[in-house]
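Forwarding the complex inputs:
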Amino acid sequence: MMDHEADTPLVVGDTVLRSRLLVGTGKYKDLEETRRALEISGSDCVTVAVRRVNLDASKGPSLLDAIDRTKYQILPNTAGCFDASSAVRTAELARDVLGTKLVKLEVLGDEKTLLPDPIGTLEATKELVSQGFDVMVYCSDDPRLGVRLQELGAKSVMPAGSPIGSGQGVLNHNALRILLELVSVPVIVDAGVGTASDVAIAMELGAHGVLLNTAIAGAREPLRMAAAMRDACRAGRNAYLAGRIEKKLYAHASSPMAGRIAGAQL
Amino acid sequence: MQHNDSDLAVRCTVNGAETCVPAGITIAGLLEQMRLRPEIVAVEVNARLVPRATWSARAVQANERIEIVTLVGGG
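Prediction (whole assembly, two chains):
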């Protein structure tokens, strides 16, 4: 990478990530498509879910066979948990499989909205931190909630841009900007991304990373969208680091006004 | 999984399904019997994690609720 594009890694607890794009592994056609999308995305951190094992005699290959653990940090989530205690149990199970302490905590309020339940999220964060987990917390974009999560020991605050899988992008830019001012742990926009510009906007606003899944897996061409997301994340990050110009009400000419022939006296 | 000799079997549930397992079988033995790859699963009994280091010492008791999970695609 050129010096003028140099960046620092994304550090979450003890985990050091080169890419600021984190991607999910759900909803792909098959494990081969999953593997290729992850590779193209350039991500080095991928999420997985914890579910009952298939007890049928004909067991296919495992997702874990498709993820090279020397290339990817695996981030287990507690998706599908609607109370703190089941989220904590899920995190403990994931840690026992992977032998790693990183977890993406999700405590959801209800199945229709899949919005994070703030109280259950706080409770589970507290318990998991006390058990030594590095907790990355999926939460709403309420800046004060982010502060409370950081105080409890969260290693990353992960506000939803908009509801999970909704593709609405980052709805509340101001909440994200305030959150970024109030907390010092990495802020990773998690959920709601629909297309590449949503990722770019989150990164331009100063988010330290973006986590997405459906926007790639659900695209008509997932592999091409994986490339788009990779590029958007880099573009948005570079734009943030470069420092955008201020928005102004009136025009400001790019070309000098002096030396024009137009308007000169004939 | 089904054993007819009730004296030698204990009834329990595995992932929500009632089943009978040989008396005295350990978690490690259960996984082996079910031909599950130990490196990709985790186990809890009655909603408490059974750490993998203890699988070969932990015998299944009657009426226990066993959950065997793995990692799948998710976001």
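The interface with chain B takes residues 24-28, 34, 47-55, 57, 59, 62-64, 74, 76-77, 79, 89, 92-94, 96-98, 164, 191, 211-214 of chain A (CB under 8 Å).
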